[in-house]
Amino acid sequence: MKFANLAHFIRKFALQLFYGKTGEKEKMEKKLVHRGKTKDVFALDNGNYLLKFKDDCTGKDGKFDPGENSVGLSIEGVGDVNLRMSKYFFEKVNDAGIKTHFVKANIDETTMEVLPAKVFGHGVEVICRYKAVGSFFRRYGEYIGEGAELPAYVEMTFKNDEKGDPLVTKDGLVALKVMTAEQYDAIKTQTQTITKIVADDLKSKGLELYDIKFEFGYAPDGSVMLIDEISSGNMRVYKNGTYIEPMELSKLFFLK
Ligand SMILES: Nc1ncnc2c1ncn2[C@@H]1O[C@H](COP(=O)(O)OP(=O)(O)OP(=O)(O)O)[C@@H](O)[C@H]1O
Ligand SMILES: [Mg+2]
Q: How many whole angstroms from 38 Cα to the centroid of ligand 2?
């Protein structure tokens, strides 16, 4: 036992000598698997991924716009609040017995450890709507009033910046072999349950969820799981009928 401890100490010391502080950093850089617009993805030795939340936001001409597909600006502290909100909701969802990719978060380092998932095709986003606003109202405004209620309406889009994230139907996803009909149904049900968890929580803080966007992936056994983040930039929230900007929402959310 004592020998094992000593051996461990010597090994640790030798590794420290070998890598040093900068060496560790280089080791980390080598494991970068994806440099995203708002997060970088690293592969960890234990097989999990590490998401590093950055202060970059999507937007245009220096104005924050969660719907935009390019990085327009950097706001100090955005990575921190997005991670905090994600941690808060992922823990709630996991506690409700729904499997997600969330393992743990490190607020000081603005990182989140997650289970590695396979994404559907080149990535699928799932939207759940309680109110007819945004692109839904732009598409179907001749059939529905702006802000009218919707029954936790779920729709999916392909992640494709050049094509403006086109909508895709269940039949389309199955015909294109991007997912099975069973996976689609599981994602739809989970999305509605998770959206209700988020909406109920916001309601208890005097806030109303109009719509929300998620990303799903799947485990090696094919089971679907919620991935990526759950933060203010991915949801439309109103207070007393007034839209709350994402940064303002993050502040309101963590007000005691
Ligand atoms: N558990 C996971 N396993 C594998 N990939 C994941 C997991 N969670 C998130 N991702 C991927 O990590 C990346 C995070 O990067 P980021 O959020 O910056 O997005 P992006 O790729 O630039 O695109 P977008 O702006 O459309 O979200 C995304 O590609 C997302 O699909
Ligand atoms: Mg993203």
A: 6
- pLDDT tens per residue, range 55-93: 988 877 777 777 777 787 888 999 999 999 999 999 999
129 lines ligand 1 (CB under 6 A): no
Tokens of 242: 């007034």
Distances (CA, A) of 146 to 153, 236, 239: 15, 14, 16
Main-chain dihedrals φ then ψ at residue 112, nearest 5 degrees = -135, 125
Give the span between the Cα atoms of 50 and 13, in whole angstroms. 25
pTM for this model (two decimals): 0.88
> Do residues 170 and 184 make contact, with C-beta atoms less than 8 angstroms apart?
yes
User: What value, to the nearest 5°, has the Cα angle with vertex 211 and ends 230 and 233?
Assistant: 40
Q: In ligand 1, which atom is closest to the CA atom of 101?
A: 1
Q: Is 53 in the pocket of ligand 1 (CB under 6 A)?
A: no
Q: Which residues have a Cβ under 8 Å from the Cβ of 71 and sit 6 or more positions away? A: 37, 38, 56, 57, 58, 59
- 52 CB near ligand 1 (under 6 Å): no
Residue nearest to ligand 1 atom 4, measured at CA: 117
Q: How far is CA 211 from CA 31, 83, 198, 238, in A?
A: 35, 20, 10, 10
Say how many Å lie between the CA of residue 100 and the centre of ligand 2.
Answer: 16
